[in-house]
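Input record (one chain):
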Amino acid sequence: DHADGQTRSDWVLRFFRNAPEHRFVGAIHNQLCPEFHAKAERDGMRLAMEAEFAIDHWGYSRDAKRSKKKDERSLRLYERALRDEPDNVFLRYKYADFLRGQGDPERALAALDDVSERVEAFPPEERASYTWCTECYALHALELMNAGRLDEAMVRLEQATHCPVTANLCFVYGLWCLKTEQWAEALQAFVDCRSIDGPASMQAPAPGVTTWKSALGMAEALFGAGRVDEGVDLVVSEAAAHPESPELCVRAVQLLAENRGVDSALRACRMGLERFPHNALLLMLAAEILLSKGAAENALEAARAALECAPEANRASARALVERCSAA
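The corresponding structure, as predicted from the sequence alone:
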């Protein structure tokens, strides 16, 4: 369970035959020692994805991260581990990914620059055997895109074609195509992304990537191609299929208001608020729709509720909405 309230699955080797020589190594992101895999191969054993085994891990919920100061602890462990193993490229990849969440994009990009160059120096057969090499390039491309460096991002995406395909890579490529207005290629990338899921992919996708996030990407590609009705229908149907996603619900309400009328949008908004009663964006949409229908008193109630639960980034907009509803 992550700090953003979403749950993701990950597939890590945690069930194995007990033996004195089977030990975990590493101060952080512990892995079974290399000798384990070599011995397993010699003995004719194989890695099996046993989906019926699950370990629930709540250590990254918002409260747990805050109370245990997880980020501070992780930073100390990374710095210690990198002093002990400066040439461990996997460790450098995980450290770069960690920095992406610390609000310092320049530092994260510098770390990704470093690790991508190290991965590029691997023998081709080694790059082709590790999905984390793919993820390194994909994350690097994503951060370069966020910085507006689209040409450099494509260089990393092209390098990733020599690595195993992952859902995250397809998703990032789809985002790149959207930014460069290549609508057909974007649509296909998100379709491909949705087909790569489950333990068989050997790389857990980021939460929502193979479901609602790729659906939103497909819709944006359809809009770009002028296929507006198809895009609206897709988002509305996906919002019903994935009730766990407030983002899909918000986008469905927005699109219905813009393309199908305020009554259908208001119905969808009320259904969404039954699932997410404290979602500030849905409450603000409800207030806007009610205000447009002349229901100023109900609009003001929704706007005030939005202001109470709005995150800092939305507080100014919520406050302005309350003032407009009050004056109506």
